[in-house]
Specification:
With 101 residues, the protein is mainly alpha-helical. The protein is built from six helices and no strands. It has a single domain, classed as Trp Operon Repressor, Chain A. The longest helix is centred in the middle third of the chain and has 18 residues.
């Protein structure tokens, strides 16, 4: 894995942690990234969620429009990466469970 830790990225992440609402996220990420970049990130996250739920490549591709190459890359990170996808997916599931109580 490429080393990405540096002070500029730390500052970016600290800034992201200051966002408090979805609307604030839209404002910040609209300024930070292009629409295709955001759509690509969202697609990869949807792929990770579906892989986490043991969906097949065919179903994931149909539902998200992702290529098998993208699905394969996301799968590699989901199962052998830094557990970032799993952490967020688990937290969102826990939040959803609390909201449904």
């Amino acid at each position: 894995m490429a080393q990405i830790n540096n002070s500029s990225i730390d500052e970016l992440f600290e800034g992201i942690l200051q966002l408090q609402t979805v609307e604030e996220c839209y404002s910040f990420f609209h300024d930070l990234a292009t629409v295709p970049e955001l759509k690509s990130m969202a697609q990869r996250f949807q792929v990770a969620k579906l892989l986490y739920e043991n969906e097949t490549y065919t179903d994931i591709s149909t539902r998200t429009g992702a290529s098998t190459a993208t699905i394969s890359r996301v799968k590699k990170e989901l199962f052998y990466g830094s557990d970032g996808y799993r952490m967020i997916i688990d937290r969102l599931k826990a939040k959803e469970g609390k909201e449904n109580e």
